[in-house]
Each structure stands twice: as structure tokens, then as C-alpha cells.
Amino acid sequence: MSDRAKRILLYVLLAVGALIFIFPFYFMVIGAFQTNPTNDPSSLLPTSGWTVQNFSDINARVPLFQALFNSGVFTVGVLLGTLTFGLLAGYASARLRFRGRSLIFVLMLLVQMIPFQLLMVPLYVLLTRTYGLGDTYLGIILPFLINTTAVFIFRQFFLGLPESIFESARLDGASELRTLWSIALPLVRPAVVTVILVTFIGPWNEFLWPFLITKEASMQPLAVALANYISNVSQTASNPNGAILAGACVLAFPVVLLFTAFQKYFTSTDVGSGVKG
């Protein structure tokens, strides 16, 4: 087989794989705007009856804009905490020399092995009964404020930077915070984007913990509101299948939008550009 034929075969396989990956999203979007989505292959064509009634049904049963606001507060709070503590802890564990650094790193890896579901009950008791943070935004955000995965990602990126860059900054009198902000952070932009995307997906789709910590409908994030709608209310809608797919679209759209906006930053940084010679 010639090189040209191999290249064509590779492109065909990649195209087939892409179509298989995209098809569930295509079915979700098409079904969300259809009057009666079914398993009939003809219903997958964009020419069969279009409607926005499915989204209107959700908005009539669920405080959609309030739920979006709650998800925004939850997600932004988690992102700010993850980036702040992740950068500081990752930089310290990678570039500062202090006693017990290796032990802290091992403990951090052990924390990653513990499923969050095992901690939900003690965290719930601690936050609601001890600190009185039930039915508050802070009670929802606090357990996710520090992400050991983000610390690990930043640590590995900081370890990959040339030591001479940091030595030059220290010789010029820069503090550690100034070195982190002005020198190290611009070089680990792909890590920042990765952490943002990985962290965003978690709180945006989280519904177990918010459902546990708050019972007030006015404070429930979008995932909780849509889960309640899909499980309890959608079957009473005029178009149950369309209502379920419309709810999935509402939940998935911000994630797709964020990935589309940031995917161009998934590039390797030229970490050696600041090293002479």
C-alpha cells in the first residue's frame, strides 16, 4: 500500500471516529428542537418539525435563569479557589525547598484516591451542624475550593520549567510571588487552561452535593434543577423526549462553549525561550 493510500485510509478512519463521537451531540440538539423525537431514522433529519416549545416547557417548570445564576456562582467560586490555591501549592511543592515536601506530595496523591462520595456525609454534618452553612453558597463551594488534581497539574508543569529562569529572577531581587506571577505563570498557560476546563466540568455537572446541602429551590444549581425536572416533571410535558433532550442541551451548552473558546490555548509553551544559549 502506497503512502498516499495509507494517508487516505487514516483520514477516513479519523472521519468515521469523529462522526461516531459527534452523533450523540447531534441527536441531542436535533431532538431538543423537534416536536416529537423518536427512534425513526427520518427524525434525525433537520427538516422534520422544529419547535422551541421544549425549552419553554423547561422554563415554565424550572426557574432556569435563577438556576443558571446559582451554577455560575458555584462554578466561579470553585474556579477561583482552585486556581489560587492550586497555583500557590503547585509552585511551592515544585520550586521551594522545605522539610516534608515529599511527604506532602505523597499525602496529596493519597487524597486523590479517596472518592468524594465517602466524605459527603461527614462534610455535610461538619458544614451544616458545626458551621451552620446549610442553604448557603459558601456551604456548596467550600468542599471543592481546593483541588488536589489542579495542584498536581501545576506542580508537574512548574517542574518542567528551566531552573535557570528562577535563579535569574532571584538574583534580580524578585520575590517568590513576583516570580510566580510575572515569570512562571505566563509559561504554564496550557496548564491554567487545562485546570479551568477540568474544574469547570465538575461543579457545573455536580448535583449530589448541592442537592444534599440545600433544599431551597431558589439556590439549587442548574444540574440539580434539571435532574429534578427530568426525573419528576418531564414525563408530564407534552413532549417528554424533547423535554429531556432540551434539558441536556441547556446543561451541555456552556461546557461546549467554554471548550470551543479555550481549545486554541492547548499548545505547548516554549519554556526554553527565556534561557540564554
Structural commentary:
With 277 residues, this protein is mainly α. It is 70% helix and 0% strand. The chain has 13 helices and no strands. Residues 269-277 have low confidence and may be disordered.
Summarize the topology.
Layout lengths: L2 H30 L20 H9 L2 H32 L5 H12 L3 H15 L6 H5 L6 H12 L3 H9 L4 H12 L1 H17 L2 H6 L8 H12 L6 H23 L15
Helix pairs in contact: 1-13, 2-13, 3-7, 3-10, 3-12, 7-10, 8-9, 10-13, 12-13
Give a quick summary of the entry:
The chain is mostly helical. The chain is 70% helix and 0% strand.
Keywords summarizing the entry:
single chain; 277 residues; mainly alpha
The global form is flat
What oligomeric state is this?
single chain
Low-confidence stretches: 269-277
Q: Terminal Cα separation, in Å?
A: 45 Å
| Overall mean pLDDT | 81
**Strand fraction band?**
under 5%
Major sheet description: none
> Could you say which structural class the secondary elements and strand pairing correspond to?
mainly alpha
Query: Helix count?
Result: 13
Helicity, in percent? over 70%
**Strand tally, please?**
0
